[in-house]
Structures are given as structure tokens and as C-alpha cells.
Amino acid sequence: NPADKNTWFGHPRQLSRLFTTEAMERFGYYGMRALLTLYLTKHFLFSDTTTTGLYGGFTALVYLTPLIGGFIADRYLGSKRSVKFGAIMMAVGYFVLCFGGDTAKPHAVIDGQRYEVQVENFIDRPTSTGEEVRYVTTGSERLKIKGNDDGSVDLLRADNSVARNLPKGSFEPGADRNSLFVFLMLIGLSLVTVGNGFFKPNISTIVGSLYAQGDRRRDAGFTIFYMGINLGSFFSQLLCPFLADNVGWWAGFGLAAGGMLLAAALFQFDGGRLDGYGERPEGADPSRDLLIYGCAILAVPAVYFLFTNLMNATAAEPGSGIVGYVMSLPLMGQVLFLTFLISIPGILAWSFFKGSRQEFQMMLAAMVLIVFNVVFWTLFEQAGSSLTLFADRNTDLHITSNWSISAGQTQSFNAIFIVLLAPLFSILWNGLARRGLEPPIPIKFGLALVGVGLGFLFLVWGSQFAGSDFKVGIWWLAGLYFIHSVAELMISPVGLSMITKLSIARVVGLMMGVWFLSISVAQYVAGAVAQVASVETVGGQVTNLQVSLNTYLHVFTIIGEWAVGFGVVLLLLSWPLKYLMHGVK
Ligand code: GLN
């Protein structure tokens, strides 16, 4: 009720505290995300394949744990206790990531012999400036390493004549790294994964609980909340890479930890604002709490085990068909895919037998949209992995001739565009709705898929203007993020409300879980896609910038075209879907 004195921008005043808490939590998460792939490739010197595989598995689990965290809050802890507990776990996780030890040392194996590689001008920072040159000393000669387009490697003398040509496969780059620090890094990520399960779904639930059933401010409230998310992300995606760049990796992760701690404090000391919201469900037994916290802490080593399993899994030859593909995946991938592939027909069968004909048809429409949702996030979530590596390697990061940003900071484009565009979209949808012109949900989804694909094709198109250094101007990357942000606003908030409108009431929580499961599967597939875009590195630097540019453009073209294709299919399907949705818009 806008006439109410106790409101905040016309919304319940509790929203302000949830807004600041979530802004700081996302500050931590996205600050860490801006650093993670660069940290893995440039500090730990992991190959692209290992980096993007681990990144995909980590983000997949980050989106999977909310299923369990939401369930635990509903049944036992209540949202508020869950948020507090999750906040502390995540803060500790970011803090642990500060301990990275010394940078790993690069080496190369040539003819079965192991040589140390000296990287000149190598800076232990997520920066793309500086021309790194790699040398190897064999015998008494110090030779420059140069990668060729065909995958072979030349060892050059001081006068740039070729001393040796190593055919593809006979040169193996590697790195020596301290296993204690790898262990700590994985424990840090595991803590964040489990903590996020307690935090993320439950703070959103509290936002929902501020509004009575049918309160028309609800959607606007979630839009404000979504802006808080991106406001927090924006600042940390600028600041954390800046600190990592100028002070050290530890400072970047430290700031993420600080932001998360502030979120915890804001929520803990709320001045009684949130009294009565997100409390323990009636009849739940408080004496169970300790057991739950204990189990959550025990889940950390379990997640750690999954991560090490993922990193050590050698890529098995994929078998034929989808079953063959799933069976060739590491344990985590198999579990994810099987859960997704079983839950869809399972829930549909249940609604066929238990629901009315109309309810079943609406559930069917929701499931179709959920499957297409996987395609969207698979492309969108390249942001933290392949697109950040692309920014580092093949993007000219100069904003003006003497001012450039760092690769990790390019992730902030998405956040700032969302902050700017979200209110415009709110106005646009409302205006269209008043004229009866608001596009139906499947059309919005279809346009989002076309958009996420076009974003990649836009970058590919712009790459023809790349300089002789094989770097594409930063505005092309910014353009991709702009198109992706428009697309995100057509699918992400729309999808959440779609679930609440199409689901049979008794299973709406479960369907929300399947929605997040589809994003989780997408994160995993996104990691696999980024793995296809792997390029060879020595000492954390690519050996051949031209090969790397071509590899990225090849993969970006394929996924861009596929997404546009899926989008068009969905636009065509919008007719039958409209029939199945029985008037839900
Ligand atoms: N950027 C939003 C967030 O972090 C949404 C991400 C998503 O749902 N995949 O909350």
C-alpha cells in the first residue's frame, strides 16, 4: 500500500535490508567469479581444459545446492537462520581462497625430457598488458618458444632462426604447483558451494514473503531486488580485479570475503526490521539445528571430493547418442544429467495421473520452456570462462588510448547494463500490457535465445576488424554483453514468474527446483563448451594468439548459430505452447 508511511520506494521497508544484504552477497560472489578462471590459468597455471572443466563443475554445483538449502529451510531452519549460516560459510570460503601460495612454475616436456620454462615479462596478475615471451634452455642454448597454426612448436635462436621444430603433440606444457594450495583453493570453492545453497534461495523466499498473495507490487519488488544483485556485482567486478592486479590475488579474494562479511553483518544486525519474516516453520524442532549445521560442514569434503574427481577425470571417448555422452562424463556430470533427465518425465507422469487435463498441459508447457532454458544459460554463462579468457587474450582492453581495464573487469558490463535496463523493461512490459500487447512468455523466451546467439555472432562479426596483434576492440565485447543483458531480462525474471503461474500448486517448490536444476545443467554444459574452446598455454600464456582467436571464433560461431536456431524453433512452437498454457501470459 503506497499510502503506508513505513515504505521504501513504495515497498515494504524490509526490502531495503534484503536489497543491501543481497547486493553485498553478490558483491562477494561475482568479485570472486571475476578472478576465478584467470586465477586458475595464470596463478596455478592449469590448462584451459582443466580450468574450464573445474569452473563448469563448480558453478553447476553452486546452482544445485539451493535445491537442498531451500528444502532444509522450508522443513527445519526457516529462511532467516539458513541465510545467516550460509553467509558465514561463504565468507570463510572466499577468505580461504586468499591463500594461493607462490605462483606455479611452468615447464615443458620435449622428447620426454623435462625443462623449466622461463617466462619473461610474466606478471602474476590478471592483466593482459605486457608482451610475454617464453624461453626454454636446452643444453647450453636459450631458445624462444613459438606456437604455430598447425599446432607444432618452433624453438627459435636469438636471431629468430628455427633451431628445432617440434611436431604437434611432441611438446607438452605443464606446471609444478604446490598441492597444499590447490587443496585450499578447492576447499574454498567447496565452502562457497555449500554456503550458497543455504543463502541464495532463502533470501529470495524472504523477499516473496513481504508481499501478500495477489499484491501487485511483487514483480516490481523482485525487479528492485534484481537491481541490487547487479549493483553489488558491478562494483566488485571492477574492484576485485583492480586489487588482484595492483596488490595481489589475495587482496581481490579478500575484498570478496569482506563484502560477504558485511552482508552477514547487515542481515544479523537488522535492527529488528526482519522480525517475523523467514522464521522457523511451525512445529520444527530447534534441537535438530546443530545436526543440520554439522551435516552441512561434512558436505564440504564431499564437494571437495567431487571437484578432485572432476579435475582428475580423463576425458573418456564419448559414446554414441545422449546415453553414451552422459556415461562418458565425470561422476558429477552423470549425476546432474540423470537427475534432470529423470525428473522431467517423472514429474510429467505424476501430473498426468494426478492433475486435470489442463493442469497437465500447463506443466508440459513449463517443462518445454525449462528445457530451452538450458540452451540460454549455456551460452550466457560463457561470461566467467571462455569470454573472460577471450578478453584476456584476444581483446584490446583499451577504453581510451591511455586507459585500459583488465580482463576480469569486462564481466561488469553485464551488471551495469542490467541496472540500467531493468527499470526500462519494467516500464516497457507494463506499457505493453496496458495496451494488451505484452508478448507471451514463449515469445520472450524465443527472443532471448535468438539474442544470446546474436550476441556471439556480433562479436564474431566484429572480429574481422581485429588488429595485427589478433586483438578485437573492447566495444565488440561490450556489445555482446549489451545484447546478452537484454536477452537475460527476457528470460531470467520471466522464467521465475512463469514457474509460479504454470505449476500445479502442490509442486511449485519442486518445479522451482527443476528450474534451478536446468541452470545447473547449463553451467556444466557451459564448462564443456568452454573446454572445446581450449587453447594451448605455457606459463599461463597462450602460445599462439592467432590460433587462439580462431579457436574462440570457431566455437562462438557454432554456439551462436545453434542458439539462434533453437530460438526460432521456440518462436514457432509458441503457437502450440499458447494452446497448452490456457491463457497464462
Ligand atoms: N545474475 C543473477 C544472480 O546472480 C541471475 C543468475 C541466474 O539466475 N542464472 O542472481
From TrEMBL:
Main localization of the protein described in the UniProt heading: membrane
Membrane-spanning segments: 52-73, 85-104, 180-199, 220-244, 250-269, 290-311, 331-353, 360-380, 413-433, 445-462, 474-496, 508-532, 552-575
Pfam families referenced in this protein's UniProt entry, alphabetically: PTR2 (PF00854)
Keyword S-adenosyl-L-methionine: no
Bilayer topology term: Multi-pass membrane protein
Keyword terms, alphabetized: Cell membrane, Membrane, Peptide transport, Protein transport, Transmembrane, Transmembrane helix, Transport
Entry's localization field: Cell membrane; Membrane
Family to which the UniProt record says this protein belongs: Belongs to the major facilitator superfamily. Proton-dependent oligopeptide transporter (POT/PTR) (TC 2.A.17) family.
Protein name: Peptide MFS transporter
